[in-house]
Give the backbone structure.
Amino acid sequence: MKALQQPLLPGATLGVLGGGQLGRMFSQAATRMGYRVAVLDPAESGPAAEVSTHHLCYAYDDEAGLTKLAELCDAVTTEFENVPAQSLRFLQQHVPVSPAPDAVEIAQSRIREKTFFVQNNIPTNHHCLVSSSAQIDDAFSQMSGKAVIKTTTLGYDGKGQQVCNSADEMRTAFESFGSVECLVEDFVHFDLEVSVIIARDTNGQTQVFPVAENQHRNGILDISIVPARVSSTVCATAEKIARQVADSLDYVGVLAIEMFVVGDDILVNEIAPRPHNSGHYTIDATDHSQFDMQVRMMCGLPSLPVQQTTPVVMLNVLGDLILSDHFSWQALMENPQVHIHEYGKAAARAGRKMAHVNFTGSDADQLLTAVNQYKAQFPGVFS
Ligand SMILES: Nc1ncnc2c1ncn2[C@@H]1O[C@H](COP(=O)(O)OP(=O)(O)O)[C@@H](O)[C@H]1O
Ligand SMILES: [Mg+2]
């Protein structure tokens, strides 16, 4: 296994697996600091490729592409959590890779994730595994009347999951997913959802970004409010749990942890082994962004203390908004509180993440009002 001998400094070449918006923002942060970036992505063009030095257009499991990436780069990371762990292991023989394949592999499977939480005393909701229709009655009866069924792999943005109020409903959902292995979870009547982005360096030192309060619409993140409107006790618990997760994984890199808040308690929902949509606020509202930190962590540089510089509300811009009748970038471009991050995707589609905008200003309540007023101009898009 190849490890870093010394920190990588500006001028070095960094590799990233995946060419979407997370790769784009990684590349923008890295190139600003003076690194060169090579993107490996099967698509011929895309958000990351258009802002990077090199684009290797190969499948994630193509050894020829992985070999080229290893030859070009001084270290490699990933923006896409479903890169085969085998590909990361292959790369690791030739070039330092972070996060470690084992950590990425845990985050790729909802059941491996839950098992990891249980084994490491990380609080999570009640769950069980089902792999056949015959197990559904028993699984549903173990929950408290309302449950969520989720495919164990490849689900994202609420896809591959369904809330169920009966065993029959769950069986239908299970079959509609192709009878693949699924996780069944208790439905959590949470007060709100939060997430924590944490950076852990090669020496095991961690820095936690401010806790984000997240609101979803149709299973997709809609807005993040930072600071989150939770007590200092809840914040401290969220940060403690984030450190516990990162330390238990012996993680190197940037890790996102999604959590449910119930009273003063926290249940961990899921983790992502990379920067996260709910951390996009950091680009305009903390002194080092989650992407800056991803660069630093893979380069073997120390994690830095992070300070929030302004209250912020992040609004995700999906294809639904772009395609709506009255949408124009102009109003957003003219608003002094708005910072636009457009991903350069070829075509807008409903549910597709096209951009995000960070509203910043001195008054957190006013920002939320401003975001809600903005959304109210597009009836049907946000309701
Ligand atoms: N067990 C649950 N109880 C209540 N809401 C849930 C539960 N699981 C998921 N959700 C809701 O669905 C959203 C998406 O689910 P999540 O497990 O995070 O999958 P994804 O990988 O699609 O983000 C969550 O952010 C939350 O709003
Ligand atoms: Mg999620």
Remarks:
- The two ends are 50 Å apart (CA to CA).
- The mean pLDDT is 97.
